From TrEMBL, chain A:
Coiled-coil stretches: none
Domain CBS: 7-66, 75-134
Classification via InterPro entries: ACT-like_dom_sf, ACT_dom, CBS_dom, CBS_dom_sf, Diverse_CBS-Domain
Protein name: Magnesium transporter MgtE
Organism: Calidithermus roseus
From TrEMBL, chain B:
Pfam families: Hist_deacetyl
Protein name: Acetoin utilization protein AcuC
Residue ranges annotated for the Histone deacetylase domain, each copy included: 19-309
GO molecular function: histone deacetylase activity
Pathway: Ketone degradation; acetoin degradation
Gene Ontology terms: biological process: acetoin catabolic process; epigenetic regulation of gene expression
Length: 209, 376
């Protein structure tokens, strides 16, 4: 999954001379929290609703900015940006390590979109969530070549469609795989996979049957 | 006597001998009722028309079902949930599914005509969606019946005790104010179709009127009944429907090969009378009962025989007729329970029992907290 798959586009941007009041109103009217600031087509900063509120708050340290202050005085810069072809996990890592809430997305130095924390939550839901009616299989596989191929090959033979597949390391020797498959009859599949020597964690065996 | 809607056309809804949704279950049930001397005069429904089906399904989906039913092959069928392992295509599929829809619709007509409770001895295809077949379900007979009742001005509460989330019925009526849906199921975190979380509460005018109780795997009788009574009574007392539509899937039984809840027949022996009581207390005595999932032949047939006896106020037989048992045990090549009820302690103790009960209690509480602001 790439940044271009989850970013918001087109994106609302503002000139650096815009006042804090206007930026505030624009964010509320459009229900967004981040605005890239643009000079001559180039992104020069990002202003957030938090920047505006803190700048104008009597509780903040230092002088209180007036609502007519230009955003260029308050915005964050230089800007950390993303490329449309960056993988989402790279965007997530950047935002996490730099402690920022959004990344303007640039293509040939032109602003083409923006990725926020909410978009990354959407990506997480898409990767792990239930998008279609499906059953769930969970397996523990040896962390070795060919294990996943064995599993998916078997499912393909059965005509079972895999809607999603998530695999993550469990310890040094094993990985966990969670699959969403287009059948309610996952117990029969699990039984057959066990017969093939795979360790199926879900659905579990019912010892009385 | 509670009218029983049934047509031999129901038996044509069959995905082949290896498929779990087998019409043999219905044949076994009818044969059992006959052996017990209780086979009623059925109320034979007309087959549902294409227009009836279109009251809840999209034209393009119905067109695909019809084409597939005639043997037309097309790679796009899969996008409509057809020709999959769960819902394979069979000749005459459209007609067979319309018999089941016809039954549910006939039950709805009976209720509108003044009947109290009605048993639709089949159907309960709660996974079928507006635009898609899913999980053994082609057309959603329940939603067609519900739509028929709401078009006549009724407010309907749908209760689903199948072990799987009643997703099709929920999504079809998701933004309707006049339909309350209430599904008790094994949590979608573990079981097909994956939905039915407590935060799915409806949309627009329907918000607060779609309720889900996702239960922990290995939930047992007491815990199930506790949350079932708590949530059903709260919801019905508030919603005050004009009629109930109840999907009585039997796959929450501990013997079911597709799921992991552990109900015994004793639960069903309490749930069915409770549902009748709710119908009388909250819905002027009007209720349609349908069958549904249930993939252990032995368990499903006993659960539905129990439903039949409860609805007709018949005394429960302790033992099942010997001739019936022998006939079907040899046909299925598997032993059948000799008694209507499960024996005591029919499965080993569940070590996590206290945590499971605690979890289910909390789910019910959180659900009611979530919808309460909308119950005005
Ligand atoms: Zn079911």
């Amino acid at each position: 999954m790439l940044v271009k798959d989850v970013m918001n586009s087109p994106v609302l941007s503002v000139p650096e001379g815009l006042s804090l009041q206007e930026a505030h109103d624009l964010m509320y009217a459009n229900k967004v929290r981040h605005l890239p600031v643009v000079r001559e087509g180039r992104v020069v900063g990002v202003i957030t609703d938090r920047d505006v509120r803190l700048a104008c708050s009597p509780l903040a340290k230092g002088t209180v900015a007036s609502p007519s202050t230009p955003v260029s005085k308050v915005m964050s810069h230089p800007v950390i940006t993303a490329d449309p072809l960056d993988p989402v996990e790279e965007a997530a890592r950047t935002m996490r390590t730099r402690k920022i809430g959004c990344l303007p997305v640039l293509e040939n130095n032109q602003l083409v979109g923006i990725v926020t924390g909410i978009d990354l939550l959407d990506a997480l839901l898409k990767l792990t969530g239930v998008e279609k009616p499906s059953g769930r299989l969970e397996l523990r596989l040896p962390d070795e070549p060919g294990q996943l191929a064995l599993l998916t090959g078997y499912l393909a033979d059965q005509g079972v469609n895999v809607h999603s597949l998530l695999t993550y390391p469990e310890d040094a020797l094993t990985v966990r795989s969670v699959l969403r498959v287009n059948t309610q009859n996952t117990r029969a599949l699990a039984e057959e996979l066990r017969r093939q020597g795979l360790e199926v964690l879900w659905p579990p065996e019912k010892p009385w049957m | 006597m509670v009218p029983v809607v049934y047509h031999p056309g129901y038996l044509k809804y069959s995905f082949g001998p290896q498929h779990p949704f087998s019409p043999l279950r219905l044949e076994m049930l009818l044969d059992l009722l006959k052996s017990l001397g209780h086979l009623p005069a059925f109320h034979a429904p007309p087959q549902a028309s294409r227009e009836d089906v279109l009251s809840v399904h999209s034209e393009r989906f119905v067109r695909r079902v019809e084409a597939a039913s005639q043997g037309e092959e097309s790679p796009e069928l899969v996008h409509y949930g057809l020709g999959t392992g769960d819902t394979p295509v069979f000749p005459g599929m459209d007609e067979a599914a319309r018999w089941l829809v016809g039954g549910a619709l006939e039950a709805a007509r009976l209720v509108l005509g003044g009947a109290g409770e009605v048993l639709h001895l089949g159907g309960g295809l709660h996974h079928a969606q507006r635009d898609q077949a899913s999980g053994f379900c082609v057309y959603n007979d329940l939603a067609v019946a519900i739509r028929h009742l709401t078009k006549a001005g009724m407010r309907v509460a749908y209760i689903d005790i199948d072990v799987h989330h009643g997703d099709g019925v929920q999504w079809i009526h998701y933004d309707e104010a006049e339909v309350l849906t209430l599904s008790f199921h094994e949590s979608g975190r573990y079981l097909f179709p994956g939905t039915g979380a407590i935060h799915e509460i409806g949309r627009g005018a329907g918000v607060g009127r779609k309720l889900n109780v996702p239960l922990e795997p290995f939930s047992e009788d007491e815990s199930y009944l506790e949350v079932f009574e708590q949530v059903s009574e709260a919801a019905l007392r508030w919603f005050r429907p004009d009629a109930l539509v109840i999907q009585c899937g039997a796959d929450a039984h501990f013997q079911d090969p597709l799921a992991e809840l552990l109900l015994t027949t004793r639960s069903y022996g309490k749930i069915f009378p409770l549902l009748r009581q709710y119908a009388h207390e909250f819905a002027a005595g009007k209720a349609i009962f349908t069958l549904g999932g249930g993939y252990s032949f032995d368990a499903a047939v006993r659960v539905w025989a129990l439903l039949y006896h409860v609805l007709q106020d018949l005394p429960l037989p302790e033992r099942l007729p010997q001739d019936w048992q022998e006939r079907w045990a040899s046909h299925l090549r598997e032993p059948l329970s000799p008694t209507l009820h499960d024996p005591e302690r029919c499965y080993p103790e569940i070590p996590r029992k206290p945590q499971i009960e605690q979890h289910n209690r909390q789910i019910a509480r959180r659900l009611l907290e979530t919808v309460h602001p909308y119950w005005k």
